[in-house]
Design a protein that fits this description.
Elements lengths: L6 H12 L3 H9 L2 H11 L10 H22 L4 H21 L9 E4 L2 E4 L3 H9 L8 H16 L3 H12 L4 H8 L3 H20 L11
Antiparallel strand pairs: 1-2
Helix pairs in contact: 1-2, 1-4, 3-4, 3-5, 4-5, 6-7, 8-10, 9-10
């Protein structure tokens, strides 16, 4: 992920990038690229994957970030990473609507962040991440069955609980970042995360195979 920069370094690089310094923009953006790509992978509509790679979405958003840096400098209500993540999420939403139109998932299945909306984390993508590399040819059918069961367990969670699980477990956000992203307190976010994990483990423990093959 790279070494985290202090607020002063971010401010200086943002100033330079806003004035057209491409090297400053790359430095500012590069340490977050992997996290942003992972976020897009979790939220991209499966039908869009044949047309776009998550890296393409992140790269397109980079140009938007350069244009909107003065907005970040003037507002500053979000830490830099969460602001960048929001811009990337908005770009993903725009691309999905452009490519899929009426075939896109219900727009109501978006998660609010400061009155903006990001696509909801896909239960299929979350399930694939959780199941990890349980992929040997001899158990391909077992994997398919467990993916289906895992998706069902995820879909049974409250949407905000599922989102907290995605933020903390897969996007690797801190308690503070996840709380800010959802507009809730750190305490509420921590409780929802633990509750979501407990409910998911409980649901899976009752299924054939239990927690076998799941990534920690």
């Amino acid at each position: 992920m790279g070494t985290a920069m202090g607020n002063d370094s971010i401010s200086d690089l943002a100033d330079r990038a806003a004035r057209g310094d491409g090297d400053a923009l790359e430095l500012l953006f590069s340490q977050h690229r992997d996290r942003l790509k992972r976020m897009v992978e979790l939220r991209m509509d499966a039908r869009l994957r044949a047309r776009l790679d998550p890296s393409d979405v992140v790269q397109e958003a980079c140009l938007e970030i350069a244009r909107r840096l003065p907005e970040f400098q003037q507002n500053g209500r979000l830490p830099f990473y969460l602001w960048v993540r929001l811009v990337v999420g908005e770009k993903l939403t725009l691309l999905q609507r452009r490519h899929l139109g009426a075939r896109m998932r219900d727009a109501g299945r978006e998660i609010s962040l400061y009155q903006q909306a990001l696509p909801e984390a896909s239960s299929a993508a979350l399930a694939a991440q959780l199941l990890g590399k349980f992929t040997s040819p001899s158990n391909a059918a077992v994997r398919a069955e467990r993916l289906l069961r895992l998706q069902e367990a995820l879909n049974a969670l409250d949407s905000v609980d599922r989102e907290v699980l995605a933020l903390r477990h897969f996007e690797q956000m801190s308690r503070k970042e996840a709380a800010l992203a959802l507009g809730i307190t750190e305490e509420a976010g921590a409780k929802r995360y633990l509750r979501a994990l407990a409910r998911l483990k409980s649901a899976l423990a009752e299924q054939p195979g239990g927690l076998e093959g799941l990534q920690p």
